[in-house]
């Protein structure tokens, strides 16, 4: 088994994830895994970084596929005995003008951004080593979507005692409410992406609390973040930040020094803790 530290970035064949891998290759003292659901796109991204003189490693990962997540889990457990840095970056967004019915957009978006990200956490968080760093890439849109929720929902999402099961029930209810055409009546905002990212931010708050309760003394820090508005296939060419600039906050959180005990369980944007 290798004693080399290891970092893993989900959805890193392009966009912000690729920029996070590039920065970690330069700054993280260990092996860095670029992962992609499509091995061809993943290997092409690895080759691109190799051209730049960097040495990322590759492993397939489709976060929508539990078998794929478990294959990565087993590989990391057997080869490294755990994980030092996990960046949950993979995500999707429908374009604003996409004609797909809202209920379908809700189901598909929640499936990857919330439920699949949660599956990755369920399988990989038990492997986090002491002083491990977990970064869940959410969005400022989670904050605006939260403000668009009913007072009752806002209270639930801001609660310091909400459980993962309760959060899963709420995310499931959103999808069901969109299918029944009653999501606005039920207090939800009209954004599937926004609700999926509420899920990511609240999940991060819950997981940080569980780490405090169950693994105190291991110094693992887990946070949600917004990369900013970044020029990628998702956000388009008009966004102000380059992928490298978008990677700055996730990389800052991934490389928090071992002496740090904060931030933890926070929503971080521009390397600054934001109110939730
Ligand atoms: P992007 O360029 O579209 O890249 C998304 C990445 O996620 C791609 O590598 C994509 O792989 C991967 N992915 C999607 N579904 C996956 C799955 N099921 N399994 C594994 N990988 C999957 O988007 P981006 O702008 O870099 O976004 C990265 C993250 O930042 C997302 O979580 C996004 O919500 C968040 N974010 C972005 C912005 C922004 O302005 N860009 C702002 C706030 C938050 P494929 O190439 O195979 O599709």
Automatic annotation (TrEMBL):
<keyword id="KW-0521">NADP</keyword>
<dbReference type="GO" id="GO:0005737">
    <property type="term" value="C:cytoplasm"/>
</dbReference>
<dbReference type="GO" id="GO:0004090">
    <property type="term" value="F:carbonyl reductase (NADPH) activity"/>
</dbReference>
<comment type="similarity">
    <text>Belongs to the short-chain dehydrogenases/reductases (SDR) family.</text>
</comment>
<dbReference type="InterPro" id="IPR036291">
    <property type="entry name" value="NAD(P)-bd_dom_sf"/>
</dbReference>
<protein>
    <recommendedName>
        <fullName>carbonyl reductase (NADPH)</fullName>
        <ecNumber>1.1.1.184</ecNumber>
    </recommendedName>
</protein>
<keyword id="KW-0560">Oxidoreductase</keyword>
<keyword id="KW-0597">Phosphoprotein</keyword>
<dbReference type="Pfam" id="PF00106">
    <property type="entry name" value="adh_short"/>
</dbReference>
<keyword id="KW-0963">Cytoplasm</keyword>
<dbReference type="InterPro" id="IPR002347">
    <property type="entry name" value="SDR_fam"/>
</dbReference>
<dbReference type="InterPro" id="IPR045313">
    <property type="entry name" value="CBR1-like"/>
</dbReference>
